[in-house]
Amino acid sequence: MLGTTLNRKKHRRVSYVIRASDEGRHRSGINSIALSRRGDLLFSAGRDATTRCWNTANPKAVCERTYDGHTDWVNDVVVMSDEATLVTASSDTTIKFWNIANETCTATLKEHCDYVKALAYARNAQFLASAGLDRDVYIWDTVALQKPVAQMPDSQFRRCEGHKDSVYCIATNNDGKLVVSGSTERVSTHAIGLIRLWDPRTGERTGRLKGHTDNIRCILLSEDGTKCISGSSDATIKIWDIGQQRCIQSIAIHTDSVWSIALDPQNLNLYSGGKDCNIFCTDLRTLDSTLLHKAADPVTKLLLSPARSLWVSTVSADLQFLDVEPLLVRERASRSTRSKPSVHSITIVGPRRSIGSSSVGQEAPDENLVPLLANPTHVIKGLPAIVKHDFLENRRCVLTEDTAGDVALWDVTKAQKIQEYGKVDFRETRKSLEKELLVPAWCTVDCKLGSLTVNLDFPQVFSAELYANDAGFPHTPELEETKMNVGFRILRSLLKRWLQGRRVRPQDRSPMRQQDGDEGASHTEIDESLDYTISDKIKVIISEDSGTKPLICRRVFEWDGSEPVDILPEWLVQSLERDAPHNDKGERVGESPKVGFYLTAHPDCDIRQMQQGKLNAPQILRARKVLHYAMTKLQLDTQIPAKLKRPDVREPFDYLELVCNERIVPLDMNLMTIRKYVAKNPDELVLQYRWKESMAKSDSAVKGFA
């Protein structure tokens, strides 16, 4: 059993997100928004893994609160009836409950096993419905979930099974007598997209609605429970009669996928938006559709405020406020007096169609329609998201480009930006920074959250053993020969508070360490000056399944050693407690691999030949060391030709140079770099030493490396 546990924990990942703690705005697209009942607080669910709270009375200000605990996109957000609790759903497979006032997470639900895409809340019935890519619908008892653990009933949720493919949207009404969900299920040979009806009290299926020909992306249920409205990737909106379980109206005003719909409390006006960036309002009495606004980016969510204005989120990091109600009233009032068609509206005409029909005989959407509102009334600006990145050869610095076109350089060992280049060509900048240098890939990075996320996986994390001044530390004589493991030092820096807390709790040591007894418990003194300086506010994530399933997420300063040791990978615990890189079995790892090479005299130079075969040395050994070995071994300091001696050169070493493939090797270049960039045959590395008078071309020398 122990072996199984250790093997499973071996595949766990450590990640950290490089993001300024005081950003105060989203740095990537916004998937969903929600309003408090009074409409004074707006909550936005972002692709940067945060949910933010805004004061709608002052939309130009930075956010008032940030709920930062997810590790992947936040896909949906709802405000519960007590107006004190927020619920978020994420692609990290979890649902989280938050205290709105103090920004703390009060509960985490982990029943879903894939992305959680949507939430629906029945205010009067006090239940929450969730759905996602795992095909399941869950009904959660929100009253039970908020009780102390000791008072919770045995079951706080009901699982509804029946969908045969991913579920992207879900809805209910305040009374909660019915739940509807839309999926990508195949309904015929040439069509996908199915809506299922559920009884939330039993979890049983009560019906299904067919008619769309592509994925169901958004759905809502009327308050009386008699009508359902859905938007699809087939670019249509359909109105369904729940009793008859058939489509009674199909609306095709969009030219691409419909991602969001909203209905006013009187069920008279339907607002819609999606991938085509158009936001329409359709009068359900006359089927007149008015183009309210054309957004700059695809619309992810529309939210009607109590004052009948619209809040809009898009795939950008901006939030838009559209005060459209006065303009809409004026537009409709003037229609009766016009002799010409409106430049803002189109009218859907034709009979209602039954289930299975594609669309009614309406006019095609007019490309020349003029939006009622050319520009948003207010915009809460977001921050540009990183969309492109590339590691430099030193494997510490990452060049990035964001959505604004700005290029910047980041140091992942410092977890911060170190240089801004502005709006320059990314490729040309990267080319200008290119160097002949090879460092093992001890980490990977991604920019899925709009910021850089650094991922540390075993055993690659321990693959880069370098000299300290090659790992970002100053070029000082005392560090010239000091070796360090970059990944290990990063882990120590991220979890320094965890380690400090563990060492004052000897009873909490890992079982394997306890078996070592007093001798194993002692650890050699480690030079803490070689630990990197990383902000205490950097978010550290422990996850499994290549980062798809988070186990714990805390900032550097929040770790205190009380975290359950079985959450952390065993290789991480062993390494931190033993002050050196170890695997999950407690065995030492991470030492630099060896490189084999031949060291000979250059044929064009009258110099003694090395009488020995193939040599082996650590791959990080510098050319300077190789040349010094040859000089010492052959006592070349006593054989310097008289014609070479100069009064300004005192060190014998300075009369020598190292050559590989007829190219002078920079003395700071290490063996693995020489083998990749200089050697003609990397499998047969041959290095030659000679007096500097034999240099063929002085201009063939290459630059050293910082």
Overview of this structure, please?
- This protein is 12% helix and 35% strand.
- The protein is mainly β and 706 residues long.
- The protein is elongated and about 105 Å long.
- A five-stranded antiparallel sheet has the order 35-36-1-39-40, covered by helices on one side.
- Strand 2 and strand 3 (41-46) form a beta hairpin.
- The chain contains eleven helices and 45 strands.
Q: Tell me, what's the shape?
A: elongated
Quick one: biggest sheet?
5 strands, antiparallel
- Count of helical stretches: 11
Helix amount = 10-25%
The N- to C-terminal Cα distance equals 49 Å
Mean pLDDT: 86
Short note summarizing the structure:
The protein is mainly beta.
For the structure shown, list the relevant keywords:
mainly beta, five-stranded antiparallel beta sheet, 45 strands, elongated
How are the SSEs ordered, and which strands pair?
Blueprint (H helix, E strand, L loop, with lengths): L1 H9 L2 E6 L11 E6 L5 E6 L3 E6 L9 E4 L5 E6 L5 E6 L4 E5 L5 E5 L6 E7 L4 E6 L4 E5 H4 L11 E4 L6 E6 L6 E10 L2 E9 L4 E7 L5 E6 L5 E6 L4 E5 L4 E6 L6 E6 L5 E6 L3 E6 L4 E7 L4 E6 L5 E5 L4 E4 L2 H11 L9 E3 L30 E3 L5 E6 L5 E6 L4 E5 L4 E7 L3 H7 L11 E3 L5 E5 L8 E3 L15 E3 H9 L1 H8 L7 H5 L1 H5 L17 E6 L4 E7 L14 H9 L15 E8 L13 E4 L4 H12 L21 E5 L2 E2 L6 H7 L8 E6 L15
Parallel strand pairs: 41-45
Antiparallel strand pairs: 1-36, 1-39, 2-3, 3-4, 4-5, 6-7, 7-8, 8-9, 10-11, 11-12, 12-13, 14-15, 15-16, 16-17, 18-19, 19-20, 20-21, 22-23, 23-24, 24-25, 25-29, 26-27, 27-28, 28-30, 31-32, 32-33, 33-34, 35-36, 37-38, 39-40, 41-42, 43-44, 43-45
